[in-house]
Amino acid sequence: MTTAFDPIDIGSLRLANRIVMAPMTRSRATEGLPTALTAEYYAQRASAGLIISEGIQPSVVGQGYPFTPGLHSQAQVDAWRVVTDAVHAKGGRIFAQLMHAGRVGHPVLLPEGQVPVGPSAVAATGQVFTPEGLKDFVTPHALTGEEVRQTIADFATAARNAVAAGFDGIELHGTTGYLIHQFLAPNSNQRTDEWGGSVENRIRFAVETVKAVVAEIGAERTAIRIGAVPFNDISEPEAEPTYLALVAELNKFGLAFLHFQEDTDRELMQLVRKEFTGPFFLNPRTVDRPTGQEDLHLIEDGTADALTFGAGFLANPDLPARLAAGGPYNEADRATFYGGDAKGYTDYPTLAG
To answer: Is 245 exposed, middle or buried (0-12, 13-18, 19+ CB in 10 A)?
Structure first.
């Protein structure tokens, strides 16, 4: 029987275990750069089989929240190199999650004159946190065909920058209502050209982005996170045909892994698991608790090849050791999730003290 503590191969990498740190925005970057505190935070969690970084914007206009980092300048590459060196020095592996927020964001987060972009000029219902407080989402600029191609190229460039910064690979963020997901969902993608309408057209942006990244850094370093999660005003009333068509295309690349974020539809997760031919990472839906000890059976029964843990890793830098020992576990302090300093970031104790 396979357990969470057994190694697993993804691409050309052998991971020491199947306990993966999920991507979590922490909003502690300074002018788009990770800091020395960022390096300490990730290095503390290097016992994960794999760390998937917080969402990193592949372009200036991809930013959706304050104090988040990018990978579109040389200064950012240099700053991330300090982080990846620190993780590797502790024996860890780390992928960069590339996240373009699309219509989720606000002009105050962007350089003067720029506005959020999306597949269509359809504003999301809701608000976003900014340095000026909560603000309503705005109507995004609908990307032209040429701009869609440029956005795909931005992802590929950011992937190349990630490798230059020492990341072991990248994960594309394709769920929870950000740009790739916006192209998949019919309520946010109302285009009538090659990028919208039919299932084939709505999955095209995700597929072409994967294709461009694979051409830049190789399939063995490329992964994607997907899931029909109705976050940021996304609605997918008929998700199954879309995701099965997407997985059929993704199978052609030989990706390092597919990371599925589960919502209420376990049947969809199981169908995707059955259809995907590579390593399957699962962020399982749990109710009123973080993913934990009681979910390890999902690896043992073959539901997933690896599990991704969010708040569990946030509060427990040595989570694999705690899972092996059956606890105890630190409780995450929600008040310090976003922004701030070392408090609630690098000050959680380990079992070793």
So the answer is: middle
Burial of 91 (0-12, 13-18, 19+ CB in 10 A): exposed
Residue 133 β-bridge partners:
130
Residue 116 confidence (pLDDT): 98
Assessment of whether the complete model's pTM goes beyond 0.90: yes
**Kind plus residue range of the DSSP H or E element containing 74:** helix 74-89
178: annotated active-site residue: yes
SS3 content of the chain, % helix, strand, coil (to 5): 35, 15, 50
Q: Write the Ramachandran bin of 349: left for phi over 0, alpha for psi from -120 to 50, otherwise beta.
A: beta
Q: Which of 41, 42, 178, 348 is catalytic?
A: 178
| Predicted pLDDT of residue 265 | 79
Length in residues, the chain? 353
Given this model, what pLDDT does residue 114 score?
Answer: 97
Instruction: Give me the half-sphere count of Cα atoms (radius 13 Å) on the Cβ side of residue 324.
Output: 13
CA distances from 223 to 58, 74, 121, 157 (A): 15, 23, 29, 16
Residue-wise over 269-299: b if at least 16 C-beta within 10 A, else e? beebbebbebbbbbbbeeeeebbbeebbebb
From the CB of residue 149, how many other CB atoms can be counted at a distance below 10 Å?
Answer: 14
Alpha-carbon distance of 115 to 94, in angstroms, equals 31
Residue 129 CB contacts under 8 Å (≥ 6 apart), including other chains: 65, 66, 338
What six digits make up the tokens of 237? 């009333």
Distances 140 to 107, 123, 230 between C-alpha atoms, Å: 10, 6, 19
State which residues of the chain have pLDDT below 50: none
Partners of 94 in the β-ladder: 51
In this prediction, residue 254 carries a pLDDT of 98
Predicted confidence at residue 66, as pLDDT, reads 97
Radius of gyration (Cα) for the chain, nearest Å? 19
What's the pLDDT at 262?
Answer: 96
Alpha-carbon span 262 to 120, nearest angstrom: 26
Q: What is the bridge-based pairing of β-strands 13-15 and 8-10?
A: antiparallel
